[in-house]
Amino acid sequence: MVVKIKTKHEVESIAPYVLGKKLEDVQKELGLKSIRKMSENENIYGCSDRVKQSLASHVERLHLYPDGLATDLAEAVSKELNVRPSQLLFGNGSDEVIRILAKAYLNPGDEAIMADVTFPRYRSNVFLEGGKPIIVPLTNGVHDLALMKDAITDCTKMVFVCNPNNPTGTIVGKEALLSFIKEIPSHILVIVDEAYFEYVSTDDYLQTIPLLKEFPNLIILRTFSKIYGLASLRVGFGIMDESIVSELRKVKDVFNVNHIAQVAANAAILDQEHVRKCSQLNQEGRSFLEKEFTRLGLTYFPSQANFFMVDCKVSGDEISQYLMQNGIIVRSGSLLGYPNMIRVTVGTEEDNHYFISLIEKNLIEQGVK
Q1: What does the angle CA 22 – CA 26 – CA 28 come to, to the nearest 5 degrees?
Q2: Residues in the chain with pLDDT < 70?
Q3: Strand-pair partners of 331
Q4: Residue intervals in the chain for CATH 3.40.640.10
Q5: Which residues does residue 193 pair with via DSSP β-bridges, in sequence order?
Q6: Looking at residue 249, what is its pLDDT?
Q7: Per CATH, domain 49-271 is 3.40.640.10
Q8: How far apart (Å, rounded) are the C-alpha atoms in residues 139 and 137?
Q9: CATH topology of domain 15-41+273-364
Q10: What terms describe the molecular function in GO for this protein (predicted)?
Q11: Burial 195-217 (b: 16+ CB within 10 A, else e)
């Protein structure tokens, strides 16, 4: 029987988020002995050993509701980032913080400015609240802040800057972003998504947290899903003015971050040595892939994250299928706004070498190398 209850217009007008197949299903379907997942920008090195040790002692509390304010986690994060606990709002991934922001601040017809190729949850959450996403093209894979500023109208309520940007991995320079934040009217929220902050190695990157005192309309998003290796537990957070946190707490689900996730994130942020180690290994992997892409004559966006968007000289769908048949899963650019590219996560040294060997083999088979 077909359900005839009509959904709201906004739901009918958006497509569901495209999820990849389970590794086990792909492996069985293709008859592969092993498979390497290099498609979702996860930390290939996993989480800190402290996390694993911390979880064992908390299984006896599974019958209890979690702390709705994530008090212990907020205290740990505040000490690491030198902010007040009252400036932090935690969510079921930073996705939820974006959704809470849209629910709390957008009225039908309000506008939110964002890049044309960026994290898709900005657009969908704005749209679902009756807001109007204002899409500004990237320039060479980078946010065009001048065009974004020019797009501001009397209806603008918020602006999103993903830095480093997903899926291009690019950043906007520190002076450009600082100037942009200064020029945005104080009644407009400036939301800087720093999910890949810990992977950045360039000096030309704006440290945004010190700006919170001067710009109460600034919101910074971070996550435990990437370098901290806790993607399956879904913990993200926003750093912002206390007055905004107070308003968002009215909107968020009471128990939105489960107890095990809070315990794991608390342990994870205390192990900054693990973060530094993963960042260093990622830099080494990035450098290797950059050199190999150049050697093979492949174009790519300069990345400050743990992934690359690279043009492998065939369609993204074609090369991703070729790689999957040979045991590597990447994300086709056709799903990300770049149909002739793929997005590949920086893997282990072994992963990266195998990936490059397959790309080189494919180029030879095409007769272009």
Answers
A1: 115
A2: 1-31, 369
A3: 343
A4: 49-271
A5: 162, 221
A6: 96
A7: yes
A8: 6
A9: Aspartate Aminotransferase, domain 1 (3.90.1150)
A10: histidinol-phosphate transaminase activity
A11: bbbbbbeeeebbebbebbeebeb
Question: How many Cα neighbours within 13 Å face the side chain of 1?
Answer: 3
Query: Would you give the distance in Å from CA 178 to the centre of its chain?
Result: 21
Q: What is the 3-state secondary structure (H, E, C) of the chain?
A: CCCCCCCCHHHHCCCCCCCCCCHHHHHHHHCCCCCEECCCCCCCCCCCHHHHHHHHHHHHHCCCCCCCCCHHHHHHHHHHHCCCHHHEEEECCHHHHHHHHHHHHCCCCCEEEEECCCCHHHHHHHHHCCCEEEEECCECCECCHHHHHHCCCCCEEEEEEECCCCCCCCCCCHHHHHHHHHHCCCCCEEEEECCCHHHCCCCCCCCCHHHCCCCCCEEEEEECCCCCCCHHHCCEEEECCHHHHHHHCCCCCCCCCCHHHHHHHHHHHHCHHHHHHHHHHHHHHHHHHHHHHHHCCCCECCCCCCEEEECCCCCHHHHHHHHHHCCEECEEHHHCCCCCCEEEECCCHHHHHHHHHHHHHHHHHHCCC
What is the pTM for the complete model shown?
0.93
Instruction: Give me 227's structure tokens.
Output: 């370098």
How many Å apart are CA 345 and CA 339, to the nearest integer?
Answer: 17
The CATH 3.90.1150.10 portion of the chain extends over 15-41+273-364
Residues contacting 146, CB < 8 A, separation 6+? none
Residue with token string 């993903």: 162
Residues 212-237 pLDDT 10s: 999 999 999 999 999 999 999 999 99
> What single letter denotes the amino acid at residue 318?
E
Bridge-based pairing state of the strands 132-136 and 156-162: unpaired
265 with 230: CB under 8 angstroms?
Answer: yes
Length of the chain: 369
| CA distances, 326 to each of 30, 184, 219, 290, 350 (Å) | 9, 48, 42, 22, 15
